[in-house]
Amino acid sequence: MSKHVVILGAGYAGLRALHELQRGNEELRITLVDQNEYHFEATDIHEVAAGIQTSERITYPIKDVVKKECTTFIQGTVEKIDSDKQLVFLKDHEAISYDYLIVALGYESESFGIPGVEEFSLKMVDIPTSEKVHQHLVAQMKAYKETKDENYLKIVVCGAGFTGIELLGSLVEGKKKLAEIADVAPEKIQLYCVEAVTRLLPMFSEKLGGYGINHLKKWGVQFLVGKPIKEIKQDTVVYLDNQETNALAELNAKTIIWTTGVSGSHVVGASGFAAKRGRVMVQPDLTDPEHKNVYIIGDCSAVMDQESQRPYPTTAQISLKMGEHAGKNIKAQLKGQPTKAFTFKSLGSVASIGNSHAFGEVGKVEVKGYPASVIKKAIMDRSLFETGGIKEMLAKGRFDFYH
Questions:
Q1: Where are the beta strands (DSSP E) in 49-91?
Q2: Which residues are designated catalytic?
Q3: Would you say the pTM of this structure is higher than 0.85?
């Protein structure tokens, strides 16, 4: 009797696992579940938010990568997992039973309990929220044209992590179009970034991180660093201005975008897994500590780096590797063979600040400027190939290397 593998989530980790399991397993039944009918390139959503890419450009239909002879795709929202009964409960759909489960449900915005974040700031975690950011920006530019209130021209990015920095770069690039809507010069649009720590982009050397930050400053971005955010109010960011006196200050703006951090899916904790901020510290082979038939990967997983004794940062690169590894381990279990421990060696990381400028590391080599932007696009194309295959890479790939 064929075994049934259920994959929850069609992001980088889930689709990479799907490709591995669909390869040469005629007797294996697979069910893939995702709340959307499309896969989106999560590393590109800041471009949609800034209005320099359309959502169609960074998405493709999930059905394009599903082999119907062995895989069923269900568009649905996962509500809970019963790992003892081996059932997955969906909203408005009957429960699904499984023999093996891959949990790759992705990430959610993390507010850290700061008051007003949910009510008064814009998230940027998927296609709908990214489109909402862009629609909001356009509306503010139109409002300025009517009111001449300069707060409509102010954009605050909360958080100077990888996502926040890439968003700022795209907003710099998108200022020209926004300025045309507002009928002002591009320099009239004011970009701010508020960040709690003073050492920005710790994943890079101080010199390399400084290179990216200094370029954004040169392009007009105003950084407020060492200023922990204490509250978000209507059109206002409240931050700690002086650590010694605890004096607060306020920054007024009609657009406040929250990029301070993410957690794994709330479904993980709600299902009884031993999760912290939606992430489970998995076994070396990527299984849940209590269930050898449940793999938890991607943003829902915390994987220990044995060298540093710290969890690996969650990136698209490691998610793709985890998906492939989980698929291979399940195939080994089906043959009665032992699973293998997951190992990961980062190929490097590159941050884009606009379409033709980037900085980062490839291996141990630091790259900057236009050459780095070419590498960044090549990295995007590779991840697109690993989730969607040659068809999707050719259709949606980034081949605009010349500008």
A1: 59-61, 71-75, 78-82, 87-90
A2: 166
A3: yes
